[in-house]
Amino acid sequence: MSGSPAPNKLDLDAAARLEKEADTELRFRDLTGFTARLVSVMLVSLSVFHYYTAGFGILTEHWHKAIHLAAVLSLIFLLFPGGFLSVGPKIGGVPVLDWIFAVLITAATIYLPLIFDDLTFRIGNPSQTDVVMGTIMVVLVLEATRRSMGPILPIIVCVFIGYALWGNHLSGVLAHPGSDWSGFVNHVYLTGEGIFGIPAKVVATFVFHFVLFGVIATRMGLGQFFIDLASVIAGRYPGGPAKVAVLASAMFGSISGSSIANTVTTGSLTIPAMKKVGYKPHFAGAVEAAASAGGQITPPIMGAAAFVMIEFLEIPLTTLLIAAAVPAAMHFWGVFVQVHFEAKRLGLRGMEPHEIPKLWPTIRDGWPTVIPLVALVWVIVDGYTPYLAAFVGITLCVIVGFLNPRNRLTLRDLWDALDMGARYALAVGAAAAAVGMVVGVVTLTGAGFRVGFIVTQAAASTAQWFAPIFDILPASFGSLAGLTLFLTLLFVALICIVMGAGIPTTALYIVLAAIAAPAVIQLGVPPLAAHLFILYYGILADLTPPVCVAAYAAAGIAGSNPFRTGLTAFRLGSAKATVPFVFAYAPVMLIMVDDFTLTSFLFVTFTCALGVLVLGLGLTGYAFTHMGVGSQIGLVVAALMTISPSGPLTAVGVAIAAPILGWNFVRSRRERTALA
């Protein structure tokens, strides 16, 4: 894995540099000397700790979470600059104040398991020391989150803290009895409802292990195999590099839960290739961003939010992976359709034969790298814990990596992977602790039901205005109840997109799962569908200007305008914006529902896929030949009706689309005849 990479080979070091530029969660201090070595040892030790406990037994929960959080939060103060707080004398390149913060956060975190046996008597009646330690914990968790993720999430957490302390001064449905600082600290620090709650537990016991698996799997060649295989499958067809980007991102996304990591890793190869065959820079970047944003919804790894979801819903991971499969396929199908017809519209070629790897050498050299992923999925399906599955996957990654003569891991590669795997987990660890406080405030004040009531009431009031207009629609859509559900979903989707502009996906999901999911579930949507709806729209923010992080990363590689790249990526990812409404109305698409029938599943899936195809034609402006604006608008309207899980609406959609497509087919024949 040394030397200069070939033009069609991944340069993982270059990809890491690009990711660091695009992702604020990876902008670490450039440490040198003893401090750099010390921090690297701490990072690798953290990875080894999680690997060991995954295979040989998780510690007692309170100790496991405490050790994880103490290491993660202290490392953040050593690795992330503090801005206006990074002043004064330094030791080893790190300000003395940051060393003090690292020691204080470690003490405050470890304090809790040390007094764990006495917690029964302290909860509800904290001592002065408890309040002081809890205050240190709250303040430094917010500061660690600010450093690793920016100011928006800490500001939102502070708003919730303010609501907990002074909500008694509000009127109406949002009013609650209020809490003093001691009571607040008691709830979010001493109980399992706050900083040490479900989010921290999930990151410490599930997320870290799968992040580490993804990093090591990429290092030992699985990412390269996915790209080569995608090139073999799709490279020769019109617009080949873009299709390779979609397939490779789908496969790479199955081991990477990060849209930015997916973008810069596969995009470093696919974006230049797309530009070479004739795609405009902003479109090339948008294709990679839109495809890569599917990583967090693609089984088996998905993202950190998926593991939080299975804890919230108390369901097996297998249930979620099966449920997420068809919607994820719809997203990639939507991107693929638009990529294909854009290539047809522009008359683009595929990749040259010498640019496409040969099938047999690709399989011969790459098949061993798939073994860890297959084993990981097998262990999950067999009913074992996710962290044991990750342990098996990581172990096989190391074994295969050291034994594979064509892509051999070195000890240096393994050390770097363990180091980087821990770095990837730092920001999400801080976010988990911070949003744990939001969850704590929700349980302390009942804010989830209060916000849910406000959303559903606003939707119901708005629905009364529009109900007479939509009486002609089927009852599930046009009735007052149907419109209320639609508007509630729409309001929640808009909240997800707006909040997602400044909050990472996992943190956003946790917040909205606490305050918005109850509103959707209250209207009859199954909990699994409601939570997946929130997750999908939270991820959509990665593509939505002005803060479209995946598109920004892709634009940096493509040399294009980030805003234009983001708008195009949003258009390419339109299926991700429509499919959640389908499984909210027709949860049968998720398979894992009580009233599942094969007939209804096939109908909903087929009509959704057909609607996504028609939507792609309309948005691209090409169906057999170039279309006018009127035909495009007609196809978009037809697509939205066809996608709906209602038989009558689907029939209307097909009736609208058929003559438009028929007319374009006739026009294309006439144009070819005229040219002949």
UniProtKB/TrEMBL annotation:
Membrane topology term: Multi-pass membrane protein
Name of the protein this chain belongs to: TRAP transporter permease
PANTHER family, per database record: BLL3936 PROTEIN
Subcellular location as annotated: Cell inner membrane
Top-level taxon of the source organism: Bacteria
Keyword Cell inner membrane: yes
Provenance organism: Falsiroseomonas frigidaquae
InterPro entries per the UniProt record, alphabetical: DctM, TRAP_DctM-Dct_fused
Record bears the keyword Membrane: yes
Keywords: Cell inner membrane, Cell membrane, Membrane, Transmembrane, Transmembrane helix, Transport
Task of the protein: Part of the tripartite ATP-independent periplasmic (TRAP) transport system.
UniProt domain TRAP C4-dicarboxylate transport system permease DctM subunit: residue ranges: 136-592
Leader sequence segment: none
TM spans (from-to): 34-54, 66-87, 99-116, 152-175, 195-217, 320-341, 387-403, 424-445, 480-501, 507-525, 532-555, 575-593, 600-624, 636-663
